[in-house]
Amino acid sequence: MSDTTVIDDYFAGWNKQDTDAILATLTPDVVLEDVPTGHGAAGTDEARAFIDNALSQTAGTTYDVVTTLSDGATYAIEWVMQPAGIRGSSFGSLREGRIAVNRDYWSLPRKSA
């Protein structure tokens, strides 16, 4: 397992709802994708708009990171978005200590029968 500081910093930025902190963890040519919604971004300008939009739609949420796996070049993370209890995973790649690609996969909690 390699150093996961940039991943920790990425989620800390989301938890603080701080666009600049999130952007500081990304490469200038980053690719972001929210697979369930089909939304994505490429590059810093699009990433800023993507992040700002996501933060405006999820105000007050935080991410509990359950598991982080990384070999220094790629990563996989399991997380839970609170307070909604949305479970998800992020997969991506790292370059020069920053996130180059991040793809999120999630689903809404099941309603009890």
Automatic annotation (TrEMBL):
Pfam families linked: SnoaL_2
UniProt superkingdom: Bacteria
Residues in SnoaL-like domain copies: 8-100
InterPro entries to which the protein is assigned, alphabetical: NTF2-like_dom_sf, SnoaL-like
Entries under SUPFAM superfamilies matching the protein: NTF2-like (SSF54427)
Name the record gives this protein: SnoaL-like domain-containing protein
Naturally occurring in which organism (per UniProt): Frankia alni (strain DSM 45986 / CECT 9034 / ACN14a)
